[in-house]
Amino acid sequence: MISAKSGKSLLDFDAAGDFDTTNSFAPNIRALAFSPDGKHLVTGGSAAVVGGRHGLPGGVVGIWDAKIGKQLRHLGEVKEWDKNRIDKFIPPDAKVIPAVSTSAGVSSVTFSADGKLLVAGTYGATSELPEAGEVWIWNAADGKLVRKFTVAEKVEARGPDYRVSAVALSSNNKLVAAAVGIVPAGGPGRAEHPTEVRVWGISSGDVVHTLRGHKGWVTQVVFSPDGKWLASAGRDKVVRLWNARTGKEVIAMPFDVPQINVVAFSPDSRLLAAGGGNGNKSGEVKVWVVPQE
What we know:
Elements: E1 25-34, E2 40-49, E3 58-65, E4 71-75, E5 77-79, H1 83-86, E6 99-101, E7 105-111, E8 117-123, E9 134-139, E10 145-150, E11 161-169, E12 175-183, E13 196-201, E14 207-211, E15 218-223, E16 229-234, E17 238-243, E18 249-254, E19 259-265, E20 271-277, E21 284-289
Antiparallel strand pairs: 1-2, 2-3, 3-4, 5-6, 7-8, 8-9, 9-10, 11-12, 12-13, 13-14, 15-16, 16-17, 17-18, 19-20, 20-21
């Protein structure tokens, strides 16, 4: 952590802990989020076997005391890795132990507006251990799993990946939204299919809406503070605004940048902003007035 006033680091900590680089898993932090009260920090990421081997042991999520950098909880489920299946990936002398893990890698994390829930979205994997991307919801106070949603019923080894690239919670903690994309098999450089946005009811566990319309990868989803709207954006140069109650698209707002990286509502839900990257000039931000019912 760095002081905004002095620029000096206030706190440094290793979110993955100590690991042996000769036969262990190299950590990678992909997502961060502070709790609304600023007391806690959640980290999400992935671990890959060193030496160019990938896919194990999976995504990791941790909750930290933001003041002292102490890990308070490690979230996920304990998996005893099947040594018969992973011997080919790791050195013979590697120590294989039970690990707390989600699926292949954590792409996004967020707290609920009241700080009571914590959500993580994960990438899937289609190598030797095929697994679809997932949405995990925990009770932030005790780390108990509230819900887990899997985005594909069946995943083929060496088939397409089913990935969650972004997650969001409604302000009343009743709905969770996730951007779900399909990446065809084929290695580096493979094209991404258009992303759909799925909305689940947290209590029922049912899909409430499946929002389709994006022509490319979706990088961000966010609910408005008043709970009326859901916004999504990504690589198709459009910010889409959806009615969170009906699932109907309200308006599509063009934003001519190669990739929209972030979207945010104002606290009163009347304004919607988006920021993106442009290779020909500096990054851009646009702000729209949200239509009123």
